[in-house]
Amino acid sequence: MLQPFQYQGSKRLIAPVIIQRLQLSRDSELVEPFAGSAAVSVRAAIDRLAGCYWINDKNKPLADLWRVILEEPNRLVQDYSELWHAQKSDPQGFYITIRNRFNEDHNSADLFYLLSRAVKGAVRYNSMGHFNQSSDNRRLGTQPHIVAKRISAISNALRGRTRITAIDYRAMPALYEKGQVWYMDPPYQGVSSTRDSRYACTVVRSEFECFLADLIDMRVPFVLSYDGQTGTKTYGPPLPSELGLHRMELYAGRSTAATLLGRTEHTTESLYISPHLLGRMSCTKDTTKQLLLSP
Q: Which pLDDT belongs to residue 192?
């Protein structure tokens, strides 16, 4: 499963199951309002399942990185290779230097390097909006020759068929067009609030429920990853049944965060399917169904 960079919460491993529910065709535009590493779009593009793609993330430096991946992949790989080799004498100190530089100029290659070294591939910000995630000092990041292969494949699959934006998700319904299918993976309610500055885009549950209701009224076909459970920790209650969403549970494997702390915990994520998309499917089963994927 290809992914351009390490990213916490990536749906890389469960992307095939999600894509099955999207009912894509060559006439579809796959839209990701909370793209992150855009694992679902990458997998769909590699398999040539949709006609075009829309990758959006309110985190503008991340959206800019996606633009470079598609338009200037060779330059990105070269810049990353130089950073990767330059770090060897003092990996921890070098990481801090690049992090400080990124917070000044938001260079895409610097962000790409930080994601390769950051703990859990997590993009975190302080109250001033500065990237402040520490480095994982057990490793130096993905080797340049592996990065080159991944970026080349992803760029070739998406280039010329993808638009990149960095707008607020609440502005996107006004841009909906027939033929689009949306996949949404916002920050979960247990880790995102108005007081939490860790993410570039916080999602208030009450606002998000109104947003979903609007999409349903517009008959927008969508699949949503939202809430779930890791071990005994839950990320919030299920979305209200009044929305009419079809809820499924996906086994998403062992928790990376728990593994780093020496614990073995497994993650289950909820997947919601919009009524309009559900109507396209030839058959449905129980309101809640659990799917198990091989770890």
A: 44
